[in-house]
Each structure stands twice: as C-alpha cells, then as structure tokens.
Amino acid sequence: MFGRPLILKVMPDFSDFQATNMIKMSTWLRLPNLPLRCWTPIYLSKLASMIGKPIHCDDPTANMTQLSYARVLIKVDLLLDLPTFVM
After folding, report:
1. Euclidean distance between the first and final Cα of the chain, in Å?
2. How far is CA 19 from CA 26, 48, 52, 78, 81, in A?
3. Per-residue pLDDT, 75
4. Are 54 and 73 in contact (CB under 8 A)?
5. 25 burial type by CB count under 10 A (0-12 exposed, 13-18 middle, 19+ buried)
6. In this predicted structure, what is the pLDDT of residue 15?
7. 4-37: per-residue pLDDT in tens?
8. pLDDT one-digit tens code per residue, 29-58
9. CA–CA separation, 10 vs 68, rounded Å?
C-alpha cells in the first residue's frame, strides 16, 4: 500500500503492536532477462545486495532450469526507499 509491501500475519492472542517489529522483511527479488554469464552465485549476490541482504536463490535459478528470470530471496529494510533501477 502506498508503495510499500503489505504484511499480513495471524494475530496472536496477546498482541503487542509496536512498529519496531516491522523493520525488515524477507521478499523474493525477480531479475528478468539476465544474460547467462550473470547467473553465477557471486553475480546474483552482488545484484541482490544493491537492494537488500541476499539470503537464498530458488531451485530453478540455482539449477538454471527457468531462464526467463532469476529469483533471489533478500531481506529488505522497510524504512529505506527501494531503488527504482540498478545500473
């Protein structure tokens, strides 16, 4: 909402609504149309680190079975603005 991710969680019986709990979030980064030379773990990690902290890439990306895009799980700081593009 308003350019930010919407996070839905099951509410526990005793909820403590503090903004400090919602500072970082894991999300999948989708990188379309990457050249094949860019599909190395080091290169994908460098690309993903420009947006957040890289955690993991999915199986089709690691095995290079889905070549239309690469996906990397990253941890994003929700208090910072996300870049619109990476050179």
Report:
1. 27
2. 17, 26, 20, 11, 17
3. 93
4. yes
5. middle
6. 59
7. 787 777 766 665 656 566 788 889 999 998 888 8
8. 999 988 888 888 899 999 999 999 999 999
9. 34
- 22, 78 contact by CB (below 8 A): yes
Q: Which residues pair with 24 in a beta bridge?
A: 77
Kindly report the number of other CB atoms within 10 A of residue 26's CB atom: 12
Residues 6+ apart with CB under 8 A from 49: none
pLDDT at position 49:
93
Q: Is the dihedral of CA 57, 85, 34, 42 positive or negative?
A: negative
Structure tokens at 58: 């999915």
Q: Which residue type does 17 have?
A: F
State the alpha helices, DSSP H only, in the chain.
41-48, 59-63
- Residue 13 per-residue DSSP state: S
